[in-house]
Design brief:
four-stranded antiparallel beta sheet, 5 helices, globular, disordered C terminus
């Protein structure tokens, strides 16, 4: 008698490629051989690519290869249905404007003039109480910071940029702008910074030119956000939209010449507070005009290809994408975090983290199992991992 698992592997893969998630799970319970076979990532990759936050990007790259795809598909259903456990993992007394970054099993959090690194607990979304490292040097609050493989680079209200070695005590400080440095990014041996002083600057990270300003761009408006393209050939700036220039502009990295402006219908004051590249030709933006916009420069620079409006007409302070179908956004009131599916016009899920008191979500980051949101006086974690299909722990 010929059993299903006796088929050649390539034929069996083809058969299983026609099955949905529920059928695959049922098939895995038939026998040990099929259970082991259906645990393989290649069986689940097609399904995972259609799920939100499964770790499979639009190009097919796997962001979380150490976690089995079958488990990520299961957790993805919790993200879609909003099944999670909410916890304030860290609180502080004074209201701040915190920023966060995730780097593997470490969460970095700016609190006033310092940046603290906290080890994530392996049993949940909480943090180890004692930071494993503290990065100091700014005389005033840290505005933004970013991570590279070897460095943490921070920008502050004091107009300075500080380059910290992640594993070591080396740091380098240099005066970057005349006013606060609102945003910063780094790729390919370069740093790009944007400031309230209406300039963007490009800096060298090369060992022989470290800290040297290569270009200064007069943006004619306050720079709130920026991002370097994955191709490293250009970068985008988001400005306050208080002058007569477009708030979204793309610049060439080498010459710092303006390449293009995005959009034509921004109203005055519709400043862009966050921009995120998904690919060299696609990016997301959000800000004071309450919209998330998806731009594809191959299709048009005059009009975005998709947009989603914040239902309660709140400004959007921050966004993050899974580089496929999901967007997470942070609003300006009551700590509202929303999940969006690009294939739908309406919001997928909403979480209010600060009710009854109001606070913006200044920054959010997520991995395959948790979302972290930084509010004025607390850091929240949404744990999507520990619930079964009926929403129980």
């Amino acid at each position: 008698m010929l059993f299903l698992y006796h088929l050649p592997e390539d034929i069996l893969y083809l058969v299983l490629s026609y099955l949905d998630c529920q059928t695959l799970n049922s098939l895995s319970q038939v026998c040990k051989n099929l259970y082991n076979f259906t645990r393989r990532d290649v069986v689940w990759k097609r399904i995972a690519k259609e799920c939100i936050n499964s770790g499979i990007t639009q190009e097919g790259r796997d962001i979380f290869p150490r976690i089995p795809l079958k488990d990520r598909v299961k957790i993805s259903q919790n993200w879609r249905r909003g099944r999670c456990r909410k916890e304030a993992v860290l609180k502080w007394k004074n209201n701040l404007l915190p920023w966060i970054q995730l780097d593997g099993g470490v969460l970095y959090l700016s609190q006033a003039a310092d940046i603290r690194a906290y080890q994530l607990r392996t049993d949940g979304g909480g943090l180890q109480r004692k930071p494993v490292a503290v990065y100091s040097g700014h005389r005033e609050d840290v505005c933004r910071f970013i991570m590279t493989e070897s460095h943490l680079i921070s920008a502050g209200v004091d107009g300075k940029i500080i380059l910290h070695q992640k594993q070591g005590s080396f740091s380098m400080e240099y005066s970057a702008h005349n006013q606060e440095v609102n945003c910063i990014d780094s790729k390919g041996g370069l740093i790009v910074s944007g400031s309230r002083d209406r300039t963007a600057r490009v800096w060298s990270l090369s060992s022989n030119r470290l800290g040297e300003c290569l270009h200064t761009i007069p943006t004619l408006d306050r720079v709130w956000s920026l991002a370097i393209s994955p191709s490293q050939s250009s970068f985008v700036t988001g400005t306050a939209c208080c002058g007569h220039v477009a708030p979204l502009r793309i610049w060439d990295v080498e010459s710092c010449q303006l390449l293009t402006c995005l959009g034509t219908d921004f109203r005055r004051g519709a400043g862009v507070l966050d921009v995120v590249y998904e690919s060299p030709s696609t990016l997301l933006s959000c800000g004071y005009d309450t919209f998330i916009r998806y731009w594809d420069v191959r299709a048009s620079t005059r009009k975005c290809v998709m947009e989603w409006e914040e239902p309660h007409d709140s400004a959007l302070y921050c966004i993050q994408s899974d580089s496929n179908h999901m967007i997470a956004s942070g609003s300006s009131y009551y700590g509202v975090v929303r999940l969006w599916d690009k294939r739908q016009t309406r919001c997928l899920q909403t979480f209010s983290l600060s009710s009854p008191t109001s606070s913006p979500v200044y920054c959010l980051r997520f991995n395959s199992t948790h979302l972290y949101a930084a509010l004025a006086s607390a850091l929240y974690a949404l744990d999507f991992k520990g619930l079964d299909s009926r929403g129980r722990k």
